[in-house]
Write a structure and sequence with these properties.
A two-stranded antiparallel sheet has the order 1-2. Helix 6 (about 165-170) crosses helix 8 (about 195-210). The chain is mostly helical and about 425 residues long. It has three domains: about 1-30, no CATH class; about 40-100 and about 145-210, Cytochrome c-like domain (Cytochrome Bc1 Complex, Chain D, domain 2, Orthogonal Bundle); about 115-140 and about 215-405, Cytochrome c-like domain (Cytochrome Bc1 Complex, Chain D, domain 2). It is built from 15 helices and six strands.
Length: about 425
Protein backbone atom coordinates (compact mmCIF):
# COMPACT_ATOMS: atom_id res chain seq x y z
CA UNK A 1 0.00 0.00 0.00
CA UNK A 2 3.06 2.27 0.03
CA UNK A 3 2.08 3.86 -3.30
CA UNK A 4 -1.40 4.94 -2.18
CA UNK A 5 -1.81 8.65 -1.31
CA UNK A 6 -2.53 9.20 2.44
CA UNK A 7 -6.11 10.40 1.99
CA UNK A 8 -6.87 7.50 -0.36
CA UNK A 9 -5.34 5.06 2.13
CA UNK A 10 -7.69 6.30 4.86
CA UNK A 11 -10.66 5.88 2.57
CA UNK A 12 -9.58 2.38 1.66
CA UNK A 13 -9.14 1.37 5.29
CA UNK A 14 -12.72 2.46 5.99
CA UNK A 15 -14.05 0.62 2.94
CA UNK A 16 -15.60 -2.84 3.42
CA UNK A 17 -14.00 -4.01 0.19
CA UNK A 18 -10.48 -3.02 1.24
CA UNK A 19 -9.32 -6.56 1.81
CA UNK A 20 -10.64 -7.56 -1.62
CA UNK A 21 -9.43 -4.76 -3.77
CA UNK A 22 -6.54 -2.81 -2.27
CA UNK A 23 -4.85 -0.09 -4.26
CA UNK A 24 -4.91 -0.99 -7.93
CA UNK A 25 -6.28 -4.49 -7.28
CA UNK A 26 -9.46 -6.19 -8.53
CA UNK A 27 -12.58 -7.44 -6.86
CA UNK A 28 -12.38 -11.22 -6.73
CA UNK A 29 -16.17 -11.38 -6.45
CA UNK A 30 -16.69 -9.71 -9.85
CA UNK A 31 -17.18 -11.98 -12.86
CA UNK A 32 -14.13 -12.36 -15.06
CA UNK A 33 -14.30 -11.24 -18.66
CA UNK A 34 -15.12 -14.15 -20.95
CA UNK A 35 -12.26 -15.27 -23.22
CA UNK A 36 -14.59 -14.87 -26.21
CA UNK A 37 -17.29 -12.25 -25.95
CA UNK A 38 -19.54 -13.72 -28.64
CA UNK A 39 -20.21 -16.83 -30.67
CA UNK A 40 -18.75 -14.99 -33.65
CA UNK A 41 -15.45 -14.39 -31.81
CA UNK A 42 -15.31 -18.03 -30.71
CA UNK A 43 -16.04 -19.13 -34.26
CA UNK A 44 -13.22 -16.99 -35.60
CA UNK A 45 -10.75 -18.73 -33.32
CA UNK A 46 -12.10 -22.15 -34.27
CA UNK A 47 -11.97 -21.26 -37.98
CA UNK A 48 -8.21 -20.75 -37.65
CA UNK A 49 -7.44 -23.59 -35.22
CA UNK A 50 -5.26 -26.36 -36.66
CA UNK A 51 -6.00 -28.54 -33.62
CA UNK A 52 -9.18 -29.56 -35.39
CA UNK A 53 -7.20 -31.69 -37.88
CA UNK A 54 -5.59 -35.06 -37.16
CA UNK A 55 -1.99 -33.94 -37.68
CA UNK A 56 -2.61 -30.38 -36.50
CA UNK A 57 -1.63 -28.96 -39.88
CA UNK A 58 -4.95 -27.64 -41.19
CA UNK A 59 -7.81 -25.42 -40.17
CA UNK A 60 -10.89 -24.19 -41.98
CA UNK A 61 -8.76 -21.22 -43.06
CA UNK A 62 -6.32 -23.51 -44.88
CA UNK A 63 -8.81 -24.25 -47.67
CA UNK A 64 -10.71 -20.98 -47.20
CA UNK A 65 -7.91 -18.48 -46.81
CA UNK A 66 -9.25 -15.14 -45.44
CA UNK A 67 -6.32 -13.38 -47.11
CA UNK A 68 -7.22 -14.70 -50.55
CA UNK A 69 -10.97 -14.52 -51.08
CA UNK A 70 -11.67 -17.47 -48.74
CA UNK A 71 -10.43 -20.04 -51.25
CA UNK A 72 -7.51 -22.47 -51.22
CA UNK A 73 -4.67 -20.65 -53.00
CA UNK A 74 -1.97 -23.19 -52.16
CA UNK A 75 0.21 -24.07 -55.12
CA UNK A 76 1.26 -27.45 -56.43
CA UNK A 77 4.60 -28.73 -57.66
CA UNK A 78 4.19 -26.76 -60.88
CA UNK A 79 3.91 -23.47 -58.97
CA UNK A 80 0.29 -22.99 -60.01
CA UNK A 81 -2.70 -22.92 -57.68
CA UNK A 82 -3.85 -26.49 -57.26
CA UNK A 83 -7.31 -27.22 -58.71
CA UNK A 84 -8.16 -29.39 -55.68
CA UNK A 85 -7.16 -29.25 -52.03
CA UNK A 86 -4.56 -31.38 -50.26
CA UNK A 87 -5.66 -32.98 -47.00
CA UNK A 88 -4.13 -32.87 -43.54
CA UNK A 89 -2.24 -36.11 -44.14
CA UNK A 90 -0.28 -34.43 -46.93
CA UNK A 91 -1.13 -37.05 -49.54
CA UNK A 92 -4.89 -37.13 -50.09
CA UNK A 93 -6.71 -34.75 -52.43
CA UNK A 94 -10.35 -33.97 -53.01
CA UNK A 95 -11.92 -34.13 -56.46
CA UNK A 96 -13.59 -30.71 -56.42
CA UNK A 97 -12.26 -27.19 -56.18
CA UNK A 98 -12.87 -25.65 -52.74
CA UNK A 99 -15.61 -23.03 -53.22
CA UNK A 100 -15.21 -19.63 -51.64
CA UNK A 101 -16.71 -19.24 -48.17
CA UNK A 102 -17.27 -15.54 -48.88
CA UNK A 103 -20.93 -14.56 -49.16
CA UNK A 104 -21.89 -18.20 -48.51
CA UNK A 105 -24.35 -17.15 -45.83
CA UNK A 106 -26.75 -15.91 -48.53
CA UNK A 107 -27.27 -19.32 -50.10
CA UNK A 108 -30.76 -20.42 -49.00
CA UNK A 109 -31.45 -23.77 -47.39
CA UNK A 110 -31.35 -26.57 -49.93
CA UNK A 111 -34.67 -27.42 -51.48
CA UNK A 112 -36.82 -27.55 -54.57
CA UNK A 113 -39.01 -24.77 -55.85
CA UNK A 114 -39.79 -22.29 -58.59
CA UNK A 115 -38.98 -18.62 -58.95
CA UNK A 116 -39.09 -15.80 -61.44
CA UNK A 117 -35.63 -14.58 -62.31
CA UNK A 118 -34.75 -10.97 -61.64
CA UNK A 119 -32.56 -10.71 -64.72
CA UNK A 120 -33.38 -9.18 -68.06
CA UNK A 121 -33.26 -12.50 -69.87
CA UNK A 122 -34.02 -13.58 -73.41
CA UNK A 123 -37.82 -13.69 -73.80
CA UNK A 124 -39.43 -17.04 -73.24
CA UNK A 125 -39.02 -19.79 -70.68
CA UNK A 126 -35.65 -18.43 -69.50
CA UNK A 127 -37.50 -16.06 -67.18
CA UNK A 128 -38.77 -18.90 -65.03
CA UNK A 129 -36.82 -21.53 -63.15
CA UNK A 130 -38.10 -24.67 -61.51
CA UNK A 131 -35.74 -27.04 -59.75
CA UNK A 132 -33.33 -27.27 -56.84
CA UNK A 133 -31.72 -24.25 -55.24
CA UNK A 134 -29.37 -23.44 -52.40
CA UNK A 135 -27.48 -25.39 -49.82
CA UNK A 136 -23.74 -25.48 -49.26
CA UNK A 137 -21.01 -27.31 -51.20
CA UNK A 138 -21.21 -27.66 -54.98
CA UNK A 139 -24.04 -30.19 -54.69
CA UNK A 140 -26.02 -28.62 -51.84
CA UNK A 141 -25.57 -31.62 -49.56
CA UNK A 142 -25.22 -29.36 -46.49
CA UNK A 143 -28.36 -27.44 -45.69
CA UNK A 144 -26.63 -24.48 -44.04
CA UNK A 145 -23.34 -23.11 -42.76
CA UNK A 146 -23.24 -25.14 -39.56
CA UNK A 147 -23.90 -28.40 -41.39
CA UNK A 148 -21.20 -27.49 -43.89
CA UNK A 149 -18.70 -26.76 -41.10
CA UNK A 150 -19.40 -30.18 -39.61
CA UNK A 151 -18.06 -32.03 -42.64
CA UNK A 152 -14.34 -31.28 -43.15
CA UNK A 153 -12.99 -32.18 -39.66
CA UNK A 154 -14.37 -35.72 -39.98
CA UNK A 155 -13.61 -36.21 -43.67
CA UNK A 156 -10.67 -38.66 -43.98
CA UNK A 157 -9.29 -36.89 -47.06
CA UNK A 158 -9.63 -33.44 -45.51
CA UNK A 159 -8.91 -32.81 -41.82
CA UNK A 160 -9.03 -36.50 -40.93
CA UNK A 161 -10.31 -36.59 -37.34
CA UNK A 162 -11.64 -39.99 -36.28
CA UNK A 163 -14.80 -38.88 -34.51
CA UNK A 164 -16.69 -36.02 -32.94
CA UNK A 165 -15.35 -37.14 -29.57
CA UNK A 166 -11.78 -36.87 -30.89
CA UNK A 167 -12.48 -33.31 -32.04
CA UNK A 168 -13.93 -32.42 -28.65
CA UNK A 169 -10.80 -33.81 -26.96
CA UNK A 170 -8.83 -31.25 -28.96
CA UNK A 171 -11.19 -28.49 -27.85
CA UNK A 172 -10.65 -29.51 -24.23
CA UNK A 173 -6.94 -28.74 -24.63
CA UNK A 174 -7.81 -25.05 -24.59
CA UNK A 175 -9.18 -23.82 -21.23
CA UNK A 176 -10.54 -20.72 -22.92
CA UNK A 177 -12.70 -22.92 -25.15
CA UNK A 178 -13.99 -24.79 -22.10
CA UNK A 179 -15.02 -21.50 -20.50
CA UNK A 180 -16.43 -20.04 -23.73
CA UNK A 181 -18.66 -23.03 -24.50
CA UNK A 182 -19.92 -22.93 -20.93
CA UNK A 183 -20.70 -19.21 -21.05
CA UNK A 184 -22.03 -19.00 -24.61
CA UNK A 185 -23.81 -22.34 -24.93
CA UNK A 186 -24.26 -23.52 -21.35
CA UNK A 187 -22.28 -26.64 -22.20
CA UNK A 188 -19.80 -28.76 -20.35
CA UNK A 189 -17.56 -29.73 -23.26
CA UNK A 190 -16.61 -33.04 -21.66
CA UNK A 191 -20.17 -34.14 -21.00
CA UNK A 192 -21.66 -34.67 -24.48
CA UNK A 193 -19.53 -34.92 -27.63
CA UNK A 194 -22.48 -34.57 -30.01
CA UNK A 195 -23.75 -31.41 -28.33
CA UNK A 196 -20.24 -29.97 -28.11
CA UNK A 197 -19.55 -30.68 -31.78
CA UNK A 198 -22.85 -29.07 -32.81
CA UNK A 199 -22.01 -25.98 -30.76
CA UNK A 200 -18.58 -25.82 -32.40
CA UNK A 201 -20.10 -25.81 -35.88
CA UNK A 202 -22.69 -23.25 -34.79
CA UNK A 203 -19.92 -20.91 -33.63
CA UNK A 204 -18.03 -21.30 -36.91
CA UNK A 205 -21.26 -20.55 -38.78
CA UNK A 206 -21.74 -17.43 -36.63
CA UNK A 207 -18.32 -16.22 -37.76
CA UNK A 208 -19.14 -17.00 -41.39
CA UNK A 209 -22.28 -14.89 -41.12
CA UNK A 210 -20.22 -11.85 -40.12
CA UNK A 211 -19.36 -8.91 -42.36
CA UNK A 212 -15.80 -10.26 -42.59
CA UNK A 213 -17.13 -12.68 -45.18
CA UNK A 214 -19.49 -10.28 -46.92
CA UNK A 215 -18.39 -6.62 -46.78
CA UNK A 216 -20.15 -5.57 -50.03
CA UNK A 217 -17.46 -2.94 -50.65
CA UNK A 218 -16.27 -3.71 -54.19
CA UNK A 219 -16.12 -1.01 -56.86
CA UNK A 220 -19.50 -2.26 -58.05
CA UNK A 221 -20.97 -1.79 -54.57
CA UNK A 222 -19.35 1.59 -54.19
CA UNK A 223 -20.90 2.66 -57.51
CA UNK A 224 -24.32 2.23 -55.86
CA UNK A 225 -23.56 4.65 -53.04
CA UNK A 226 -25.49 7.95 -53.02
CA UNK A 227 -24.22 10.98 -54.89
CA UNK A 228 -21.83 12.94 -52.73
CA UNK A 229 -20.58 9.93 -50.77
CA UNK A 230 -16.80 10.20 -50.58
CA UNK A 231 -16.43 6.46 -51.19
CA UNK A 232 -18.61 6.39 -54.29
CA UNK A 233 -17.09 4.80 -57.39
CA UNK A 234 -18.07 5.96 -60.85
CA UNK A 235 -17.76 3.70 -63.89
CA UNK A 236 -16.09 5.75 -66.61
CA UNK A 237 -18.17 5.67 -69.78
CA UNK A 238 -15.08 4.78 -71.83
CA UNK A 239 -13.81 1.99 -69.57
CA UNK A 240 -13.95 -1.62 -70.68
CA UNK A 241 -15.54 -2.50 -67.34
CA UNK A 242 -18.42 -0.15 -68.10
CA UNK A 243 -19.09 -1.89 -71.40
CA UNK A 244 -18.85 -5.21 -69.61
CA UNK A 245 -21.37 -4.10 -67.00
CA UNK A 246 -23.86 -3.19 -69.73
CA UNK A 247 -23.34 -6.54 -71.42
CA UNK A 248 -23.60 -8.48 -68.17
CA UNK A 249 -26.97 -7.04 -67.23
CA UNK A 250 -28.40 -7.27 -70.76
CA UNK A 251 -30.41 -10.02 -72.42
CA UNK A 252 -27.75 -10.24 -75.13
CA UNK A 253 -25.35 -12.20 -72.94
CA UNK A 254 -27.84 -13.85 -70.60
CA UNK A 255 -25.27 -13.77 -67.76
CA UNK A 256 -27.96 -12.57 -65.39
CA UNK A 257 -30.12 -15.62 -66.00
CA UNK A 258 -28.03 -17.43 -63.38
CA UNK A 259 -25.73 -14.79 -61.88
CA UNK A 260 -28.27 -12.18 -60.80
CA UNK A 261 -30.47 -12.42 -57.72
CA UNK A 262 -31.88 -8.93 -57.32
CA UNK A 263 -33.30 -6.27 -59.63
CA UNK A 264 -30.58 -4.40 -61.50
CA UNK A 265 -28.92 -1.76 -59.35
CA UNK A 266 -30.15 -3.07 -56.01
CA UNK A 267 -27.59 -3.32 -53.24
CA UNK A 268 -26.65 -6.66 -51.80
CA UNK A 269 -26.38 -8.50 -55.12
CA UNK A 270 -24.59 -11.84 -54.65
CA UNK A 271 -24.25 -12.59 -58.38
CA UNK A 272 -25.77 -16.03 -57.99
CA UNK A 273 -29.39 -17.13 -57.83
CA UNK A 274 -28.27 -20.51 -56.40
CA UNK A 275 -29.88 -22.59 -59.13
CA UNK A 276 -28.42 -25.89 -60.36
CA UNK A 277 -27.25 -26.38 -63.93
CA UNK A 278 -25.11 -28.62 -66.09
CA UNK A 279 -23.08 -26.35 -68.37
CA UNK A 280 -20.95 -29.09 -69.90
CA UNK A 281 -17.75 -28.69 -67.89
CA UNK A 282 -15.13 -31.21 -69.04
CA UNK A 283 -13.14 -33.55 -66.82
CA UNK A 284 -10.07 -32.01 -65.20
CA UNK A 285 -7.43 -34.66 -65.82
CA UNK A 286 -4.92 -32.88 -63.57
CA UNK A 287 -7.36 -32.96 -60.64
CA UNK A 288 -8.11 -36.62 -61.27
CA UNK A 289 -4.41 -37.42 -61.26
CA UNK A 290 -4.21 -35.95 -57.76
CA UNK A 291 -7.45 -37.35 -56.33
CA UNK A 292 -7.29 -40.78 -57.93
CA UNK A 293 -11.00 -40.65 -58.71
CA UNK A 294 -11.96 -42.60 -61.83
CA UNK A 295 -15.75 -42.36 -62.04
CA UNK A 296 -17.70 -39.36 -63.27
CA UNK A 297 -18.66 -36.52 -60.95
CA UNK A 298 -22.44 -36.63 -60.99
CA UNK A 299 -22.89 -33.25 -59.32
CA UNK A 300 -26.32 -32.85 -57.76
CA UNK A 301 -27.00 -36.57 -58.11
CA UNK A 302 -24.09 -37.12 -55.70
CA UNK A 303 -26.13 -35.37 -53.01
CA UNK A 304 -27.36 -38.25 -50.81
CA UNK A 305 -30.87 -36.75 -50.78
CA UNK A 306 -31.19 -36.80 -54.59
CA UNK A 307 -31.98 -39.90 -56.64
CA UNK A 308 -33.49 -38.31 -59.76
CA UNK A 309 -31.19 -39.09 -62.69
CA UNK A 310 -32.26 -35.87 -64.44
CA UNK A 311 -30.12 -34.01 -61.88
CA UNK A 312 -26.91 -35.78 -62.93
CA UNK A 313 -24.14 -33.35 -63.84
CA UNK A 314 -25.77 -30.26 -62.33
CA UNK A 315 -23.89 -27.99 -59.94
CA UNK A 316 -24.88 -24.97 -57.90
CA UNK A 317 -24.33 -21.60 -59.59
CA UNK A 318 -21.38 -19.99 -57.76
CA UNK A 319 -21.19 -16.39 -56.67
CA UNK A 320 -19.13 -14.08 -58.88
CA UNK A 321 -17.99 -12.08 -55.86
CA UNK A 322 -14.16 -11.97 -55.92
CA UNK A 323 -14.21 -14.23 -58.97
CA UNK A 324 -11.22 -12.45 -60.54
CA UNK A 325 -8.94 -13.48 -57.66
CA UNK A 326 -10.32 -16.91 -56.76
CA UNK A 327 -9.32 -19.11 -59.67
CA UNK A 328 -8.98 -21.81 -60.86
CA UNK A 329 -12.56 -22.07 -62.05
CA UNK A 330 -15.51 -24.43 -62.31
CA UNK A 331 -16.37 -27.09 -59.74
CA UNK A 332 -13.23 -29.03 -60.62
CA UNK A 333 -10.81 -26.16 -61.25
CA UNK A 334 -10.41 -27.11 -64.90
CA UNK A 335 -9.84 -23.54 -66.17
CA UNK A 336 -7.07 -21.32 -64.85
CA UNK A 337 -8.09 -18.01 -66.38
CA UNK A 338 -11.33 -16.05 -66.19
CA UNK A 339 -11.12 -15.15 -69.89
CA UNK A 340 -11.16 -18.87 -70.67
CA UNK A 341 -14.34 -19.26 -68.64
CA UNK A 342 -16.17 -16.59 -70.63
CA UNK A 343 -14.99 -18.10 -73.93
CA UNK A 344 -16.08 -21.53 -72.71
CA UNK A 345 -19.62 -20.26 -72.13
CA UNK A 346 -19.67 -18.65 -75.56
CA UNK A 347 -18.39 -21.73 -77.40
CA UNK A 348 -21.57 -23.56 -76.40
CA UNK A 349 -23.47 -21.39 -78.91
CA UNK A 350 -23.46 -22.90 -82.42
CA UNK A 351 -22.21 -19.69 -84.07
CA UNK A 352 -19.34 -19.03 -81.65
CA UNK A 353 -15.90 -18.16 -83.03
CA UNK A 354 -14.14 -19.60 -79.96
CA UNK A 355 -13.45 -23.10 -81.19
CA UNK A 356 -10.38 -23.81 -79.06
CA UNK A 357 -9.50 -23.69 -75.40
CA UNK A 358 -6.94 -20.86 -75.22
CA UNK A 359 -5.15 -22.62 -72.36
CA UNK A 360 -4.48 -25.79 -74.35
CA UNK A 361 -4.67 -24.64 -77.96
CA UNK A 362 -6.92 -27.65 -78.58
CA UNK A 363 -10.65 -27.96 -79.32
CA UNK A 364 -12.81 -27.79 -76.22
CA UNK A 365 -13.06 -31.14 -74.44
CA UNK A 366 -16.38 -32.94 -74.28
CA UNK A 367 -18.62 -32.48 -71.23
CA UNK A 368 -18.03 -34.88 -68.38
CA UNK A 369 -21.80 -35.36 -68.26
CA UNK A 370 -23.51 -34.58 -71.55
CA UNK A 371 -27.06 -35.24 -70.36
CA UNK A 372 -29.30 -32.68 -68.63
CA UNK A 373 -27.47 -29.64 -69.99
CA UNK A 374 -29.12 -26.22 -69.64
CA UNK A 375 -29.02 -25.56 -73.37
CA UNK A 376 -31.84 -23.01 -73.36
CA UNK A 377 -29.90 -20.80 -70.97
CA UNK A 378 -26.57 -21.44 -72.66
CA UNK A 379 -27.43 -21.11 -76.34
CA UNK A 380 -30.13 -18.47 -76.74
CA UNK A 381 -27.91 -15.45 -76.08
CA UNK A 382 -25.91 -14.04 -78.99
CA UNK A 383 -22.24 -14.79 -79.50
CA UNK A 384 -19.45 -12.54 -78.21
CA UNK A 385 -16.46 -10.87 -79.78
CA UNK A 386 -13.02 -10.94 -78.19
CA UNK A 387 -13.52 -7.30 -77.21
CA UNK A 388 -16.75 -8.18 -75.43
CA UNK A 389 -15.14 -11.12 -73.65
CA UNK A 390 -12.49 -8.75 -72.31
CA UNK A 391 -15.13 -6.24 -71.27
CA UNK A 392 -17.01 -8.86 -69.26
CA UNK A 393 -13.79 -9.93 -67.54
CA UNK A 394 -13.03 -6.31 -66.69
CA UNK A 395 -16.47 -5.84 -65.20
CA UNK A 396 -16.09 -8.97 -63.10
CA UNK A 397 -12.84 -7.60 -61.74
CA UNK A 398 -14.86 -4.74 -60.25
CA UNK A 399 -16.74 -7.31 -58.14
CA UNK A 400 -13.61 -7.75 -56.00
CA UNK A 401 -13.86 -6.81 -52.31
CA UNK A 402 -11.69 -3.81 -51.45
CA UNK A 403 -9.39 -5.90 -49.26
CA UNK A 404 -8.52 -8.13 -52.25
CA UNK A 405 -8.07 -5.50 -54.95
CA UNK A 406 -4.30 -5.76 -54.59
CA UNK A 407 -4.59 -9.37 -55.79
CA UNK A 408 -6.05 -8.39 -59.17
CA UNK A 409 -3.82 -9.18 -62.16
CA UNK A 410 -1.51 -6.37 -63.21
CA UNK A 411 -1.73 -7.34 -66.86
CA UNK A 412 -3.01 -4.17 -68.51
CA UNK A 413 -6.05 -6.02 -69.83
CA UNK A 414 -8.52 -3.43 -68.62
CA UNK A 415 -6.45 -0.29 -69.25
Amino acid sequence: MKNCPPLLLVALLLSPVFMLSGCGGSDSNSPSSPPFASKEALGESLFHDTRLSANRTQSCATCHNPGHGFVDNRTGADGKVSPVSRGDNGTSFGDRNAPTAAYARFSPAFGQGSHTRAAETVPGNLKEYSGYIGGQFHDGRANGLAQQAAGPPLNPIEMGMESKAAVVERLLENPEYVEAFSQLYGLDLAANADAAYAAMTDAIAAFERSDTFAPFDSKYDRSLLPLGDANRYVYDALDKATQGKSLFFSQFTNCGACHQLKAKGQRGETFSNYEYHNIGVPVNAAARALSGVTGSDDGLLANPDISDDTQRGKFKVPTLRNVAVTGPYMHNGVFADLTTVVMFYDHLKPESDFLENPETGLPWAEPEVSANMSNDDLQQARTLTETEVTALVCFMRTLTDARYEHLLPDDGLCD
